[in-house]
Recover the amino acids of this structure.
DNA sequence: GTCTATACGTAGATAGAC
DNA sequence: GTCTATCTACGTATAGAC
């Protein structure tokens, strides 16, 4: 039932969510419990009955709130992508396109989200394959746009001469990838705040991109 | 049945494995098919019947080769961790402890494995939670040792003054994390060879660690 | 080693009363 | 909205013949 710490997909042990992201009442409660169970055991190893029990209802009642188990997952993944995209977009104002400051702000927002809301980030990044194409589509659009924001920032910085990398796409994958993994290892046992990690990783990203010192 | 490209957990579309890693005959064939199915759909969404059909046998026959579906996964994950650990250990000779060359060699080995054998790397890193503790134990030992190799390298490099980072653990998570993600995005559609990526990421790691230029 | 046949539990989802 | 009861399909695994 309980997975040993070293084998868990995520180290975090509390469900945290962006304020106001979820609906009130039972529908919201179901999403919270689904987030916890899907992140820990995976979508396919969590049954409707598991989810209902954790939510304090019977399995049949779940269907008055969501048409299927897949729709519950889809809603969580969509909300996760939206929160992520919103955070990145909010990081742009106040920074010049293609500046080192803009890249630092984007990385900080990316990593902060992964550290503050690791369950949400983990599900959004690891369970998308379980959705039918129609339910995955909104998240894919947001994901493509978030990615483009970061790639544009790297490319414009290269044009402006503030960065120095042989291949901008590889820099993107490295910077984005190290941030995504934070959702897996960050937990209450670590001595860092999410802000600590976001700042450190932003500095790493600037070094990696060869930003002028 | 088939997952759209943008939703797949891994971009690779061919099963590649270190030469000689798997047994010959039917037992090996089962592992190859399990690798493909588990990596694509996940352990819990692949049934014994799916696996048997892909292997060219009936589901009952599978039990003459492995005692359970979980044992098939355990074997794959163990082999993956062994291949990874062996590759890291083989990178050490010829480099001085704590040197920038050693970190570069370790990162190159790490990333090369993730790019050459993405299915194996992906499963080893994302399905460990599905194993009972007894079956996961051998892999956990190898994982801890691999991690320590990299952490020692960073710490000794700091002592020697060849690196410059405020927090070695955060550098470790960033360097290891960006490499692990390569298994997810690298595929035949990208214009890079695994060696290209390994070299680029090794350079990124040195920059990130503040290696003297 | 491989098969056919099957046991037995649990999965997702629905019917209809309250 | 929530329940009890239930449908039907599929899950892992086993029995026993060849």
């Amino acid at each position: 039932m309980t997975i040993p710490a070293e084998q868990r997909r995520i180290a975090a042990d509390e469900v945290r969510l962006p304020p106001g992201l979820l609906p009130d009442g039972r529908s919201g409660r179901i999403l919270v419990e689904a987030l916890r169970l899907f992140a820990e055991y995976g979508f396919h190893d969590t049954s409707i009955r598991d989810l209902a029990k954790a939510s304090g209802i019977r399995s049949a009642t779940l269907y008055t709130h969501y048409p299927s188990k897949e729709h519950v997952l889809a809603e969580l993944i969509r909300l996760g992508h939206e929160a992520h995209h919103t955070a990145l977009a909010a990081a742009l104002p106040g920074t010049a396109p293609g500046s080192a400051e803009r890249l630092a702000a984007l990385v900080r927002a990316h990593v902060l989200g992964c550290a503050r809301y690791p369950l949400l980030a983990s599900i959004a990044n690891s369970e998308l394959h379980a959705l039918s194409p129609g339910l995955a589509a909104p998240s894919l659009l947001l994901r493509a746009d978030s990615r483009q924001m970061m790639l544009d920032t790297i490319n414009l910085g290269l044009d402006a001469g503030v960065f120095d990398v042989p291949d901008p796409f590889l820099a993107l994958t490295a910077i984005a990838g190290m941030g995504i993994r934070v959702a897996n290892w960050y937990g209450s046992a670590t001595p860092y705040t999410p802000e600590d990690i976001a700042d450190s990783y932003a500095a790493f990203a600037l070094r990696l991109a060869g930003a002028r010192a």
